[in-house]
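Researcher: Last one for today. Full complex below.
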Amino acid sequence: MTDAAPAVLAEGLTKKFGTFTAVDHLDLAIAVGEVVGFIGPNGAGKSTTIRMLCALLRPSAGRAVVAGFDVVHAAEQVRAHIGYMSQKFSLYGDLTVAENLRFFAGIYHVPHALYDERRRFAISMAGLEGRENALVRTLAGGWKQRLALGCAILHRPPVLFLDEPTSGVEPQARRQFWELIHRLAAERVTILVSTHYMEEAEYCNRIALIDRGRLVALGSPSELRRHELGGTLVALACAPLGAALAALRDAPGVAEAAIFGDRVHVLLSTGGLAAADLPGFLAARGVHADVAQPIAASLEDVFVRLVAGRARAEPAP
Amino acid sequence: MSLRRILALAFKEMLQVWRDPRSLAIALLMPLMQMVMLGYGVSLDIRHVPLCVFDQENSQASRAVVERFVASGWFAITAALDSNRAVSRAMDRASCIGAVVIPADFSRQLASTGTGPLQIVFDATDTNTTNIAMGYAQGVVALVTADLDARWTAARGIRPSGVGVVDLEPEVWFNEGLESRYFIIPGVVAVILALVGAQLTSLTVAREWERGTMEQLVSTPVTPFEVMAGKLLPYFLIGVIDAAFCLLAAIYWFGVPFRGSAGTLLLTTALFIVVVLAIGYLISVRVRSQLGASQVALLVTMLPTTLLSGYTFPIDQMPAPIRFLSLLVYPRYFVTILRAVFLKGSGLVELIGPVLGLVLYAVVVLWLAARAFRKRLD
Amino acid sequence: MPQATAAVVADGLSRRFGPVEAVREVSFAVAPGEIFGLVGPDGAGKTTILRMLAGVLSPDVGEIALDGIDVRAEPERAKLHLSYMPQRFGLYEDMTVAENIFFYATLFAVPGKERRARSAQLLAAAGLGEFGRRLAGQLSGGMKQKLGLVCALIHTPRVLLLDEPTTGVDPVSRRDFWAILYGLRESGVTILLSTAYMDEAERCSRLALLHEGRIRALDTPARLKQAMLGALLAVSGPDPRGLRDALVDAPGVLGLLLMGDRVHVRVDDAARRTPELRARLASTGHAPEDIVPIEPGIEDVFVALLGPGAPA
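Model: Here's the assembly. Have a good evening.
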């Protein structure tokens, strides 16, 4: 595999279940050493796509190449060259750290000659030196999850799939985990993260937003924030909030309005109300409001804008 | 206590039972299947007992005796042998479990004394079968005797005044053979209801813990008694249907004579169903996993019920400590009640003892279950 | 503590499970109409606190008052006025949306007329109006959570306790969910909820940051952020890893976090350090595209609070 060849390539990838199209002509190329986040609402086709890329589901149309192997014609090769980790199910709580590692080494056919070194690496990466004989269920979340990552990469897969890897983990542990992920990426491991938590998506080099089987947006977190919002985001404190929200949702030029604490975030598209008009508009409807201030959009704002906007344009079947 | 809440719980439970047609089908058909299997298991082993014949006389009279054995249906003649050694060989090979040996002077002795010496040999390895088979053999012999008696007295010009009496005598003997079925099948009904009933409710609370619905339920003002009543109601209906299936099968399929009143039967059956459902519920409350609850229910009901309820092994033949222990085995009261209602036609007054036993059981178990239900996660 | 006016008072709550001290000396008071957030990672004690408030778990030590009712002494009376939505979906998946609502309405003895009016109104607000006859088990994650909320609200509780209500829910459904919560707050319902998601915490009126069973900080999101030491800068460029490595031992840098396409740098003084950092990066050949001050998130507060690099 050369640098030019993508580590993961999907062309027109499609999966139908009966009349339902779960994934619809998805095109995606991920470079070696890239960390890409798959985000989208429940049922958008994230897991179906990942299952096809892991050669667990056969595509209905299109093709996919993972680590240089075709997912249809070389399914076993694909499986041997990928690692998979989900926070919830991968480890055996009633086995010790060492026993879990030995088990996964067996599953992945890690050669005996390499096992000792790989095991040491996994244990040091997880920060579990001296705790090899501890039962996994007695470990705190952060360690457990770093150990799960260690197990998933025992066979040095060039492509790694992570499913909501850090949901519910302590902030510090999450930061340490992502340090590890970026370290692996520096060693040319390609990483796909599927999640609908924007906190996790922020750590990815690029984000692929999938909605109802289609790739809706693709770009770095900053690019998405800059280009995909389709308007300017402002925040204003107002009272009462409920009346403010109701009035703003029907106002001309307001694409989206949501309450955050004691403020309302308003997404203004062009051709309607301007930020300066908002206090007056609200005052006319019995709502007291301060001056609207522009704020930086979050990935969640982008997500909601793209997904909810599409839902309004073409209602779900 | 709120009746509305009980009804809401019962309605909810009913919906859930209804939405799970496979479990419902099992709950309704299982007892009927068990009834057929256990009922036949009981009645099959008393038919076609393999028997050899060593007829040293081979006369009309001796053949009539053999005929009687075959005609009874309890026995099948597997071989006609010609020596005592052949008889013992046949028994060794287990090609028969008994032999009828008719001496060479059978007719002569019969004609002269009115009694014919008949030897029946049984293999006592399987004492249970042997005992039953011996009972039948005695019945057949009594029949033969009655036959011959009648002929013998008639031949002497004595008016057979006692024909009815002579006929009656074997009737009583005959009942001994048939009675084991009449006796056992009501017991089978009790055992099946005890097993199935506890299984029905053993899952109901455990399932809510497992599925996570209990946490929300206990955060409402519902009381433990309401939960219990609401959950037992739908299963009571299923239990009554199961009981009806079993009882109808006992009467119409197995032909057990029913001499009692339907009212007594209904009332006592309903009482017993409450007891078995409450036992299952108590287990479900204590054991919070479905698998565990189901296993405990099986363990708690299966062995004591089959061994100590008196449905096959007579309680009065047990050693005193075991007999005392069997007082705790609630199905024994229902076995007693069903037998008495079926065969003796007893009413509530005669059955006051076992009925009170069940009532006491119901009250205690329901009280324990209501108390054991904790509206707490700890 | 303003006990007389508070809707929920927790005073010195502790609870242990065997050797684990799940909750340690937790005290707070929630005013009527507040949305109070218990924020922390898995295992911080959020669920245990909510279960104790809901009266389904007893504290080892401590007092709880809900609308003036002593929950330890009279849990059943308190239950009439509260609604608790456990973390795991607590409704019956083999029953329809309407049947679940009917069941919970009847348990709380809601009269039929009121039940019909209220369930229609709540279902419409939750966007579940057309799904009355669908089995709850066939709803999506977000719809299930909204149904849970409808059932929890059918008897008009004064206090609503929600345990991680938006876990497994996508951002669009999460926004709908929060719109309902804000509507409730306007009608005077007091809401306590837990979340493991720091970004969600920003929506609460007040937050208790929990770690290992203890409250580490308690204030409004804005004041928690103000109290954070230093300021946060986002440094973006084509090679964020290189940027990070170049800034590790720069003077005035309190913390570094490598994001997907930028580095978050916590500095003691944004105005003074921004040009310094720019110069340092330029000299090491990692000229940044941009250095902009950003508002810290609750996660940054959390990390700053528990000390840099503190292990899990």
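The CA atoms of residues 72 and 132 of chain C lie 37 Å apart. Residues 171-186 of chain C form the longest helix (16 residues).
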